[in-house]
Amino acid sequence: MLSRLAPMLRHAGATAIAVAFCCALPVLALAKDFTETDVKQAVDQVIAERSKDGAFVFHDPKLDADLNLIMENIKGVRGMEGYGWFANVIFHDKDEPKKQYAIDFWFKPEGDKLTLMDIRVQKGPKQEGDSWTMITRRPVAWGWLPV
Questions:
Q1: 53, 47, 50: which is closest to 71 by C-alpha?
Q2: Residues 44, 89: one domain?
Q3: Whether residues 26 and 42 fall in one domain
Q4: For the chain, which terminal residue's Cβ has fewer other Cβ atoms within 10 angstroms, N or C?
Q5: Helices in the chain by DSSP H: which ranges?
Q6: Are residues 50 and 113 in the same domain?
């Protein structure tokens, strides 16, 4: 906003610039600086809203099936200027604890809240004998974003 006012105020003097800056402060205050803690709380809220019978229900488009998952932990959170926040969350299947998924949650800041944009499976389970391993899915979630 100030960048739009700058050309008009160049010739107006210090008083006009000070008044314009003070008037812009309420507008600038609307944007919140989010933290990893805010993102983790947003993830918890989404999981709570989409849970049924104690399990997070997520429709896996690759399998075309609803997964019933139990959250283990949030492995990592990263923010990307202009894109938002990404949380990588580890889950396991409700009926098979060794069958794990790594799922990414994408949030974009909108004013004073984080808006969920998408949820994608980053890694899915693959059975190898009696054990399970997580295999990266293609395409990599949001792989087109600059790293």
A1: 47
A2: yes
A3: no
A4: C
A5: 2-9, 14-28, 36-49
A6: yes
Q: Examine the domain organization and report whether 121 and 60 are in the same domain.
A: yes
The length of the chain, given as a count of residues: 147
For 101, other C-beta atoms within 10 Å of its C-beta total 22
Q: Which amino acid type is present at position 97?
A: P
Is 2:16 a contact under the CB 8 Å cutoff? no
Q: For residue 66, what are the CA distances in angstroms to 34, 35, 121?
A: 31, 31, 12
Cβ-contact 58, 39 below 8 angstroms: no
pLDDT surpassing 50 at residue 28: no
> Structural domain of residue 9, as residue ranges?
1-30
Predicted confidence (pLDDT) per residue in 94-141, tens digit: 999 999 999 999 999 999 999 999 999 999 999 999 999 999 987 665
Domain total for the chain?
2
Q: Does the residue 51 lie in any domain? A: yes
d(C-alpha 111, C-alpha 135), whole Å: 36
CB 122 within 8 A of CB 102: yes
